[in-house]
Amino acid sequence: ARAWIGFAAMCLGMFMAVLDIQVVVTSLPAIRAALDIPAELMSWIQTAYLIAEVIAIPLTGLLTRALGMRELFAAATSVFTLASLGCAMSGGFGPLIAWRVVQGFSGGMLIPLVFAAVFLMFPLRLQGFATTLAGMVAVLAPTTGPVVGGWITQSASWHWLFLVNVGPGILACLLGATLLGRDRADRSLLRTLDLAGLMLLAVCLAALEIGLKEAPTFGWRTAPILGLFGLSLAAGALFVRRTARRPQPVVALGSFRERGFAVGCALSFILGMGLYGSVYLMPVFLAFVRGHGPLAIGLVMLVTGVTQLATSPAAVALERRAPARGLTVIGFALFGTGLAMSAFATRDTDFDGMFWPQVVRGASIMLCLLPPTRLALGGLPPGEVPDASGLFNLMRNL
After folding, report:
1. 321, exposed or middle or buried, with CB in 10 Å at 0-12, 13-18, 19+?
2. Calpha distance 84→88 (Å, rounded)
3. Among the listed residues 89, 95, 96, 98, the one whose alpha carbon sits nearest the alpha carbon of residue 166
4. What is residue 122's DSSP assignment?
5. Number of neighbouring beta carbons within 10 Å of residue 70
6. pTM of the predicted structure, to 2 decimals
7. What is the pLDDT of residue 103?
8. What's the distance, Cα to Cα, between the start and end of the chain in Å?
9. How far apart, in whole angstroms, are the C-alpha atoms of residue 239 and residue 193?
């Protein structure tokens, strides 16, 4: 019971971190108006969070080995909660962006921590259910985000988009710090931290994300964008070379030698692409083309989450009894079919036209997540799981 309640607290922390991305999306106009932010700078409210998050995710493995899972979870949740309070109290663009960076960095650690905990805390017979719980939280959060954000925006001020994290954050931190088991920690890893490798990793990921963000504005072949992509490629190559020669690297890349892990990461990356197209771009279409408000957008998108919730028990049962390879093929075939069904949408498409594509995608998401997660992490030694979980989740978030 202690383990399950502690794990539920970790899932609550991850839910807040994932929810905070989407809950803000539908409310950016309200934040912009309140803080008088120029239109061309508004997207940095999201970009700052995402860049910090994607840098933090691969570092989670090292920090887990250095601090222990319980201590790292408590620290990350505390910082995330304080940063949420800082975002709510921000009176201008600069302070808000600074707090979003802190929020994204601490929140990014909560995602791989949960998936690593599945294989570190539970025996084999319980890992399927624990993976399902974590997967439901990871995918339901962005699906329900527009509903939560829309309701908050229409019924309260934009400050509550961030203040809503404070209560659950305190609860998750207390439960995790009290109920999670204490595991072995090696503090010496912090003293020998490869700062140059950490800087190369940060430059690689940040330059890539900024380049992808600004390319549609400046042009894909312009000098600034090509420079950012070149910087990202060079920093990434130097990071891999340095990592291969270090006895204690920032991120252990050795798991990629395992075929199952490499294939699982590739599938995670593909799933991330599909989720972005179906979950993150739908609110943009519904807002700017259909003219819906935040709450109406959330209600349209809720179909995916309800379907996923309803089909999760069947996915768990199948995952225990059927080969992972076959389930993965079926899951991605269904997910691709649901995406293809949306290709026939027009500017007049609304709830009715989006209903069945969402049902098909919602029914397939757990089959796209459960088998690849076990394929990637289930066969690794416990000592490799924290780093591998960070890399696995990095692929999906990228």
Report:
1. exposed
2. 6
3. 89
4. S
5. 20
6. 0.79
7. 94
8. 35
9. 14
* Amino acid of residue 203: V
Q: Which residue has the tokens 């199952």?
A: 260
The angle subtended at Cα 111 by Cα 248 and Cα 28, nearest 5°, is 125
Give the DSSP letter of residue 343: G
CA torsion through residues 14, 17, 18, 19, sign = positive
Q: Cα separation of 241 and 199, whole Å? A: 14
Q: Which structure tokens are listed for 55?
A: 């840098």
**Phi and psi at residue 156, to the nearest 5°:** -150, -175
Contact residues for 309 (Cβ-Cβ < 8 A; gap 6+): 136, 140
Q: List all residues 6 or more positions away from 300 whose beta carbon is below 8 Å from its beta carbon.
A: 282, 286, 292, 350, 351, 354
Alpha-carbon distances, residue 367 vs 194, 309, 331 (angstroms): 38, 13, 5
At 277, list the tokens. Answer: 């197209």
Residue entry with tokens 């919730």: 309
Instruction: Please list, in sequence order, all residues whose beta carbon lies within 8 angstroms of the beta carbon of residue 223, skipping any fewer than 6 positions away.
Output: none
What is the residue whose two structure tokens read 């994290």?
165
Looking at residue 143, its pLDDT comes to: 67
Q: What is the mean pLDDT of each run of 10 residues along the chain (398 residues)?
A: 88 86 73 81 84 87 86 93 93 91 92 85 81 76 73 80 90 90 76 85 91 90 95 95 84 86 92 81 81 79 83 81 87 94 90 92 88 85 84 85
pLDDT attached to residue 262: 92
pLDDT at 26: 66
- Can you give the pLDDT at residue 396? 84
